Amino acid sequence: MSPAKDDAPILAIRGANKSFGAIHVLHDVDFAVYPGQVTALVGDNGAGKSTLVKCISGVYSFDGADVEFAGNPVTISGPRDAAHLGIEVVYQDLALCDNLDIVQNMFLGRERRTGATLDESSMEKLARNTLADLSVRTVKSVRQSVASLSGGQRQTVAIAKAVLWDSKVVLLDEPTAALGVAQTRNVLDLVRKMADQGLGVVIISHNMNDVFEVADRIVALYLGRVAAEVRTTESTRAQVVELITSGRSGDLGLARADQVQI
Prior knowledge:
Elements: E1 11-20, E2 23-33, E3 38-43, H1 49-56, E4 64-69, E5 72-73, H2 79-85, E6 87-90, H3 102-106, E7 113-114, E8 117-118, H4 120-133, H5 151-164, E9 169-173, H6 181-196, E10 200-204, H7 208-214, E11 217-222, E12 225-231, H8 237-246, E13 248-249, E14 252-253
Parallel strand pairs: 3-10, 3-11, 6-9, 9-10
Antiparallel strand pairs: 1-2, 1-4, 4-5, 7-8, 11-12, 13-14
Helix pairs in contact: 4-5, 5-6
C-alpha cells in the first residue's frame, strides 16, 4: 500500500449537505481523497454514495459544503469546474460509444486538431502512451472498435480516458461489477497502478474482497452520514459490513444507529 499522506489531501469536503425536496440525502458529510491512495466509498443502496460522487463531479451542487482542492477553497458548480480541477468520474455505464474505436472514444468531445483537420497521429500516440503508462496489455490495438472489446477491456478504456486528461482525482463507480475473475484482476491492478502514480483514487464498491485488496482507507456511509473512516489494515470485513448495515460496529461508528434522524 502507498504511504499515508494524511496531512495533505488533494480533495477535502467538510460539512456537505444535499437534499432533494423534503428528502435529506447527505448529512454533514466529511470526505477526503489523498494523493497516492485508494479510498473505498461503501454503503448500502440509498446511503448517499452516488449523490456524493455526483456533487463532487459537478452533476449536482452541494446545498452547503466547504470544498478544498490542493489546499485551496473551490466551488464546483458544474462538470466543467470538476474537469478543470482534474476530477474525472468513470460511471458504471462507462459512457463509451460502440461504433467508435478506442482513440475516438478517449478523445470524444476533446479532439485534437491541426487547423480544421483532426490530428489523428498525436491522438493515437497519446492514447497508446496512456495505456502503456498504466501497464495495459489486454488491448491489441488502439484502433479496435469498442464494440469488439470485452467488459474488462471496456472498463480499462474508460479508466484510461479519465487518466488521459492530467487527472488528479479519479472516481470509479463499481468498476468490477459484472466482470469475471481475470478481468476483475486486471481492473484492480489498474486501480492500484493509478494510485502508485500519485493520483487520488476513489472506488465505490459492494465487493468487500475488492475493497480490502485495493483500498488504503474505507469510508462507510449510513443513511447519508459518514459512519466511520477506517484504515483497511486496521479493520475487518465484518466490521465494515456492520458499519454499512447498521452504522455502528462495537465502539466504532455513529453514536446510536437507532437515534439517526432521517
